[in-house]
Amino acid sequence: MRRFLRENSLGLFFGGIFLAALVGQSFAGWAVFNDTQTADGLVPIGYLEYVTSSSFAADVAENWQSEYLQFVLYIWATVWFVQLGSPESKELQQVGPESDEDQEVGRSAGPWSPRWAGAGGFRQVVFSHSLLVVMGGIFLLSWAAQSAAGVVAFDEQRLLDLEAPVTWARYVLSSDFWNRTLQNWQSEFLAVGSMAVLGVHLRQRGSPESKPVGAADDDTGAEG
Predict the structure, then answer these.
(1) What's the rounded Cα separation, in Å, for the pair 74 and 210?
(2) pLDDT tens by residue, 141-192
């Protein structure tokens, strides 16, 4: 058990704080929702009713989709774009998908390589882009969940205001949907860009997200 915890400590750490934050969000969101209900002269709802509501689902999904979009763009962008001196960038001469030798695929695969890395044709192509495909799929599912739950929550509010509900297609073109979406996107893009640029001159000893403390500022792709 100790070995398992040590070898998987990073994933377990983030999994734990994710669950803690999600539970915290649910209780805070429940309190805010019921405050609004009371202010509108409506009856407060129970916790279980709130966490299964479209309002809570929309709030969760809109953050998930923005996070996965961030990673989709970052995974793709780092294939083709570089940042001199950044540990988040490949070396300047490695722009593009790189050679089979560098990527250890096909005939260059070793006995340690995953089976599909050594295969040819369709299987190798799929495995070569599997991270981007899976991350992109999760983004699309999260975006679909956000829009589906969002239109239900939006229509519930419109009915309370004695206004006619809208269709899903109309909602995803509305300012409400894009305000909720873009306020998440812009923060994610800022954070990723800052990480790539600040790592040129700043360090964190022992982190693979940083260059070694003594590395030159123009060392690119170096990890501490």
Answers:
(1) 17
(2) 999 999 999 999 999 888 888 889 999 999 999 998 999 899 999 999 999 9
Question: Residue 115: is it exposed, middle or buried by C-beta count within 10 angstroms (0-12/13-18/19+)?
Answer: exposed
CA 19 to chain centre: 16
Find, among 48, 119, 42, 86, the residue nearest to 193 by Cα. Answer: 86
Query: Per residue in 55-97, pLDDT tens?
Result: 999 999 999 999 999 999 999 999 999 999 999 998 888 899 8
Q: Reduced to 3 states, what is the DSSP secondary structure of residue 109?
A: coil
Give the pair of three-digit tokens for residue 16.
Answer: 């734990």
Q: What share of the chain is helix, strand, coil (3-state, %, to 5)?
A: 65, 0, 35
* CA separation for the pair 72, 86 (Å, rounded): 19
Contacts of 150 (CB under 8 A, 6+ apart): 54, 58, 61, 62, 171, 176, 177, 180
The DSSP code sequence of 162-206 is T-----HHHHTTSHHHHHHHHHHHHHHHHHHHHHHHHTTT---TT
As a whole number of angstroms, the distance between CA 221 and CA 164 comes to 55
Tokens of 205: 């000893």
